[in-house]
Amino acid sequence: MKILLTGCAGFIGMHVCERLLAAGNEVVGIDNLNDYYDVMLKQARLARLLPHPKFRMLKLDVADRAGMLALFESEMPQRVVHLAAQAGVRYSLTNPHAYVDSNLVGFVNVLEGCRHGEVEHLVYGSSSSVYGGNSRMPFSEHDNVDHPVSIYAATKKANELMAHSYSHLFSLPCTGLRFFTVYGPWGRPDMSLFLFTKAILENQPIDVFNNGRMQRDFTYIDDIAEGVVRVLACAPSANPEFDRQQPDPAGSWAPYRICNIGNHQPIELMHFIETLERALGKTARKNFLPMQPGDVPATFADTETLHALTGTAPGTSVETGVQRFVAWYRDYFKV
Q1: Euclidean distance between the first and final Cα of the chain, in Å?
Q2: What is the full DSSP assignment across 236-291?
Q3: Rounded distance, CA 30 to CA 36, Å?
């Protein structure tokens, strides 16, 4: 089928594109190739996709209302995977307008395109950050998430609410995927594994927040991409038995669904660093720092919904994933 994928030059976007293409789909990818991080890395990801005969890439910003309208009218995709977004929790503290433009304005443009194009299923990237101040573990889609602790998280929560409105008003099937700390080959340079690897190999100290006591549900990129593709094939339907007296945030009387994609195995940051040190064969110089604004002490995904929906759930160990990342990093940067 014909699938529109936004953010095709991104970390998750490239991997999802590869899987969709391998399955025989036609993929139209868009990306604005902004300079939030190294554009050359984005171009290198695209270089893996462009030779495929069923892939086409258009340079377009999802916040471009006219451009997005023309895109949907000309391409008429059957399904949409929306992964374009301004990422990063800490960056949202200093540049909130970038998140409004991309994550809010851009998402409305995607929703409008899906609505008028009668798209069969919209799958969009949300984030584990929406759990914010929640402390009950593991994080469940059935829990209330009304206390975000960063602007980034607030925009992702807003996306879920906006999607529900369109599901209700226009019967647009929407699935929001809450990703948990994605890592692996071709990852983003602003994320911890990339930053740590670069610093250790350059004999520079690494910043270890919350004195290393943070826990994250690190999820390997292949598991994330597999989950996205499997969920895309399972459009939600309206639940006629939805209880409005005790509403479940994960579902609705409309064709709407929320789903975690995480490894269901939180790892302490210090263990993650030690795993990286073994993979690199070098010990890191550590600069221990307190918790940073916008961060949360731990994340832990309940993956029962994902397993029930797709028959599978992420399971790649941190040891395996980190080793694969290091092998890619050394090959890509020739170090």
Answers
A1: 41
A2: ----TT--SSS--TT--SSSEEEEEE--S--EEHHHHHHHHHHHHT-PPPEEE--P
A3: 16
Cα(59)–Cα(152) distance, integer angstroms: 24
In whole angstroms, what is the distance from residue 3 CA to residue 55 CA? 10
152 is catalytic: yes
Helix axes 11-22, 39-49, angle to 10 degrees: 0
Candidate list 152, 166, 220, 329, residue with the active-site label: 152
Is 18 strand, coil or helix?
helix
Tell me the per-residue pLDDT of 112-142, one tens digit each, with 9 for 90 and over. 999 999 999 999 999 999 999 899 999 999 9
Query: Taking Cα atoms as reference points, which of 137, 135, 64, 58 lies closest to residue 101?
Result: 64
7-16, 86-95, 148-157, 302-311: least confident range:
86-95
**Token pair listed for 143:** 């829990």
- pLDDT tens column, 100-111: 999 999 999 999
- For residue 5, give the nearest of 48, 62, 45, 52 by alpha carbon: 62
**Distance between CA 9 and CA 59 in Å, rounded?**
10
Give the count of beta carbons closer than 10 Å to the beta carbon of residue 237: 12
Question: pTM of the predicted model, to two decimals?
Answer: 0.96
CA-based radius of gyration for the chain: 19
Maximum separation of any 2 CA atoms in the chain, in Å: 59
Task: Please give the Cα distance from 92 to 271 (Å, whole number).
Answer: 27
Give the pLDDT confidence of 199-218 residue by residue, as tens digits.
Answer: 999 999 999 998 888 999 99
Share of the chain residues as helix, strand and coil, in percent rounded to the nearest 5 = 45, 15, 40
Work out whether strand 182-183 and strand 215-216 pair parallel, antiparallel, or are unpaired.
unpaired
Q: Which runs of E-coded beta strand occur in the chain?
A: 2-6, 26-31, 55-59, 79-82, 121-127, 174-179, 182-183, 206-208, 215-216, 219-220, 256-261, 267-268, 286-288
Q: Can you name the residues that pair with 168 across neighbouring β-strands?
A: none
Confidence check: pLDDT of 89 > 90? no
CA–CA dist 159, 28 (Å, integer)? 22
